[in-house]
Design brief:
Keywords: Membrane, Transmembrane, Transmembrane helix. This is Trypsin. This protein is mainly alpha-helical. The chain has one domain (about 1-125). Helix content is about 70%, strand content about 5%. The protein has helices at about 1-25, 30-40, 40-60, 75-90, 100-125; strands spanning about 65-70, 70-75. It has a two-stranded antiparallel ribbon. Strand 1 and strand 2 form a beta hairpin. It is globular. The protein starts with a helix and ends with a helix.
Amino acid sequence: MLQKLSALLTTVFFIFLLWILFMANTEQDTVIFRFVRSLPYGDKMAHIFVFGVLTLLLNLASKNRALSYRRANIQWGTLFVTVFATAEEASQYFIPSRTLDLFDYACSLMGILLFTLISRWKMAAPG
């Protein structure tokens, strides 16, 4: 039951993220965008939060399954979100209404790393 709930929550959050990206790519304003703009460094915090939470949800939904390469274990959720965030930020170069911003990308990666550590800690915790 908990696994199904986790998968559902992950799917809903990913659809929400796709909607946010669509709205941004088509220059549509939302209450979410206005709220984020009202915060100091809101855009950067949003990158950390959104990509971090997606990472955490995917890692938990996949039970932290990992790809082993040499001595490194990289969770599939972390790998997916890293590739997705990279492609999404790079795509902004080709969208006239968007701006490729390496600081946004760095914040996305910070969120991915932070929430990967949280997911590893959560899975390692007893109970």
